[in-house]
Amino acid sequence: MKAVALKRYLPSSNPEALLDVELPDPKPLGRDLLVRVHAVSVNPVDVKVRSPKDKTEDTPRVIGWDAAGVVEATGPDCTLFKKGDAVFYAGSITRPGSNSELQLVDERIVGPKPRSLDFAQSAAIPLTALTAYEGLFDRLSIDVGGKHAGRTLLVINGAGGVGSIAIQLGKLAGLKVIATASRPESQEWCRKMGADQVINHHQSIPQQLKALGIAEVDYLFNTVNTSAYWDTMVEVIKPFGGIVSIVETDEPVKLGALMRKSVRFAWELMFTRAIFQTEDMQEQHRILKQVSEWLDAGKLKTTVTETLTPISAANMRAAHGKLESAKMVGKLVLEGWR
């Protein structure tokens, strides 16, 4: 099978950072699906994993954690899907990624592809939707059915992949959503995703919120930088509110600063269920199935803004470079094999 892989960890501008390779076709066992990949999208985790480091791989390593395709074969224990089913998924960071013609993925973390979307539009969704859903509804315990309607949610970096879905899911739950974005095009994107208000994260967030008549927010979703926004988050979160972040920090933060307000803080990593094979691992199948239904019903929209064809090392290096520019709005997808 064709694949895009790495042997060394190099800058995306280096022609050897990602390579076109031929690898053996994998065989499904247990609850694995063998999926023929039609489209993939690129996420910050791809860039982080590929980033320069003093390490080499003995065999080509395939990365990438977002795909849409068709089931080619199933393992003997599969019950959720059959050959010919169209699917979308993020996969597991502990296994070979989606930048290959064929990929093995546990069916418990796979969902049915939205019928109303093509493969490219579908591939933009899984990782970000799982992250946003788990962050809002699992970590912050927001009621997806609307019991918390009217409460306020601040999404830091609303124009990114996760932020774009978090805005939409927040609105679906009836929240008033304030997103941050700094450029006119990213601000307009946040409004397109449904944000009620958009403020600039390069300016004082507390002051801008107060100008909107919002002294503090009930919930806060940080998608970009935990330590840089820590003091701001402490200041603007309401007593008994909740903060979730998806970006680890190498710097100490003053967790005790949240005690006075009795605020909860939670990490969200959508790979946790797959990494630890948790008892509720199949919850990601349920979430993706629900997201697929919402997309087909028009309650959510895809976040793809750019598509490159075909899936190749050159296009993948270009895609990584675009993400590293920190100017991406929405999601970038690669589709089709040469």
From TrEMBL:
The lineage of its organism: Bacteria, Pseudomonadati, Myxococcota, Myxococcia, Myxococcales. It comes from the Bacteria. Signal peptide: none annotated. Residues 17-334 form the Enoyl reductase (ER) domain. CDD domains: AL_MDR. Keywords: Metal-binding, NADP, Oxidoreductase, Zinc. One of its GO terms (molecular function) is oxidoreductase activity. Belongs to the zinc-containing alcohol dehydrogenase family. Quinone oxidoreductase subfamily. This is Zinc-type alcohol dehydrogenase-like protein. The keyword Iron does not apply. The keyword Oxidoreductase applies. InterPro entries: ADH-like_C (IPR013149), ADH-like_N (IPR013154), ADH_Zn_typ-1 (IPR014182), ER (IPR020843), GroES-like_sf (IPR011032), NAD(P)-bd_dom_sf (IPR036291), Zinc-ADH_QOR/CCCR (IPR051603).
